[in-house]
Amino acid sequence: MKLVFATNNLNKLKEVQSLIPNNIQLLSLSDIGCAEDIPETQDTIEGNAIQKAKYLKEHYGYDCFADDTGLEVEALNGEPGVYSARYAGEQRNADDNMNKLLAKLGNNENRRAHFKTVISLHLNGKLHSFTGICKGEITLKKHGDKGFGYDPIFKADGFDKTFAEMSLEEKNKVGHRGKAVRQLIDFLNNIE
Q1: Cβ-based neighbour number of residue 32 at 10 Å
Q2: Residue 134: which residues within 8 A CB-CB, separation 6 or more?
Q3: What does pTM read for this prediction?
């Protein structure tokens, strides 16, 4: 089976490739000659994942899946949420995003947060969705140099280190994207 993962984010691609079994050939957007930015104009994480999968199927014809991920912070009423990648502006800079989040949170004692990934699979003319959530808290400052995005300031429940201090294998076991991808893989394994 061939599936296109609708992302230009090489970090996401690497995370997902490490989870996908060998019987599924994972293609990237560059593999199919897609260089444009796929629209993400919905006001929910679910909506963006669906929009990207539909766009790729309509414009390129491939069975595919797309994800959208957001970090939702309790004390900030769910911010940055669907705007996580562009929280500090269109430049999509992870350090700027983390700095803005840490500044807004300040010394607030409620540092509860969760990452949410929604994967939308467009397969054989039908849409399917899978959701992975990882609960945790926002640290007071950045720790670690692995991972990407908000990983240096997010500590999953039950762990004493941030995602940016974990190996890819550790993060995939407990992380939001890993949970959603495992649901996707279970689904794909059960339709063959």
Answers
A1: 15
A2: 114, 115, 156, 174, 175, 176, 179
A3: 0.90
SS3 181: helix
- Residue 60, phi then psi, degrees to nearest 5: -125, -15
Q: What is the pLDDT of residues 48-80, one digit of tens each?
A: 999 999 999 999 999 999 999 999 999 999 999
Nearest-angstrom CA–CA distance, 133 and 115: 6
145 is catalytic: no
The dihedrals phi and psi of 190, each to the nearest 5 degrees, come to: -90, -5
Q: How much of the chain is in helix, strand and coil states, percent to nearest 5?
A: 40, 25, 35
Fold for the domain defined by 2-191: Maf protein (3.90.950)
Q: In angstroms, rounded to a whole number, what is the distance separating the alpha carbons of residues 6 and 58?
A: 13
Cα 119 from Cα 176, distance rounded (Å): 11
Tens of pLDDT, residues 138-185:
999 999 999 889 999 999 999 999 999 999 889 989 999 999 999 999
Q: Which of 31, 68, 157, 186 is catalytic?
A: 68
3-state secondary structure (DSSP) of residue 190: helix
Interatomic CA distance for residues 88 and 21, integer angstroms: 36
